[in-house]
Amino acid sequence: RRSASDSSSALSDSNAPKQPFVIGVSGGTASGKTTVCDMIIQQLHDHRVVLVNQLFVILFYGGLGVLVKCAIVVVVDAFDTEQLLDCVQKLRSGHSYQVPIYDFKNHRRSSECFRQKANPVQLVQFLSILESNDVKPLWQSSSLSWKVNASDVIILEGILVFHDQRVRNLMNMKIFVDAGLSLYLVVLEIMWCVFVYDQKVHALHEHIKVLTDADVRLARRIRRDIVERGRDINSVLEQYAKFVKPAFDNFVLPSKKYADVIIPRGGENHVAIDLIVQHIHTKLGQHDLCKIYPNVYVIQSTFQI
Ligand code: ADP
Ligand code: C5P
Questions:
Q1: Ligand 2 center to residue 118 CA distance, Å?
Q2: Banded pLDDT at 65 (limits 50, 70, 90)
Q3: Which atom of ligand 2 is nearest the CA belonging to 302?
Q4: Which of 162, 197, 248, 258 is 20 to 30 A from 27 via CA?
Q5: Where would I find the H helices in 132-242?
Q6: CA-to-CA distance for 28 and 30, rounded, in angstroms?
């Protein structure tokens, strides 16, 4: 792996492409988007791609999920979309971009924070700011930013990245990740809750017969948010029921129709990932990038829904 500063020297190469290849990766929460991105990057890396650390900061956080009181409907606010659009446009035209960082925990610059230690108290505070329909102060109070250099491949990952037509239009390839139904996984996740929380599960066999894709994602999310994001099970379930599920139904699922490729079974689907990587290689080849190391950035566009 190279550091961000290493990447800028590669980018100063006169062979640098005029237009990076932009990939959008969408899908429901815990569908496997990050897993798929990691695998794509890994496979590109095996060939001739140099990665800049992909454990990225939270970008464009907060603005898209504006809670309309009572209706529990999540509406889309233009604020973050403009930022996102601006960022992708700049990167696409070969410029670097100073990305605002929202650090969920302490307004500290830390890419680990979101993935590992998002704090439930902060979450509640954040939700009340959303409820007041005013997300701007979050941005204004944070002077932190992170420089993303122009790159050859940009992977734009997030539950709502297909929502805005202007952002979609900047994408060369749009991927939607489906979790698929893995009973084995759900059983594993349930067993985990049984052991960790000492929960009794009755008639498991009957329950899993009716499980859907969304149930698999919920099972994963419960575990992930507890293990990686420091949440407790009640806050995970509450957030899921109030925000995550309605947002999926209202915004994420309807945007699936824009996908060029739908990957069932997420990161388990090696054939799909191989095909995608092959396609990226073909496109990179067309841009005659063989003499430079393409850098891959994952821009994780995440929202409080
Ligand atoms: P997303 O980025 O869509 O939220 P992730 O790729 O982060 O999804 O996956 C969510 C959680 O589910 C993570 O804990 C991950 O390890 C797990 N996970 C992802 N894909 C699978 C899979 N095919 N089988 C089992 N667990 C998976
Ligand atoms: O990786 P995934 O697609 O699941 O990330 C999006 C989800 O992360 C959103 O559903 C949002 O509720 C959640 N999120 C969170 N805590 C944060 C930021 C986002 O739970 N600090």
A1: 10
A2: very low
A3: 6
A4: 197
A5: 136-141, 165-169, 183-197, 204-209, 213-227, 233-239
A6: 6
State phi, psi for 98 to the nearest 5 degrees: -90, 105
* Cβ-contact 67, 255 below 8 angstroms: no
Helix (H) and strand (E) counts in the chain: 13, 10
Round to whole Å and give the CA distance between 159 and 28. Answer: 6
Distance CA 258, CA 277 (A): 20
244 lines ligand 2 (CB under 6 A): yes
Determine if ligand 2 sits within 6 Å of the CB of residue 113. no
Q: Which residues pair with 301 in a beta bridge?
A: 59
pLDDT higher for 163 or 79?
163
The ipTM assigned to this model is: 0.95
CA of 13 to the centre of ligand 1 (A): 36
Superfamily in which the 4-8+17-300 domain is placed by CATH:
P-loop containing nucleotide triphosphate hydrolases (3.40.50.300)
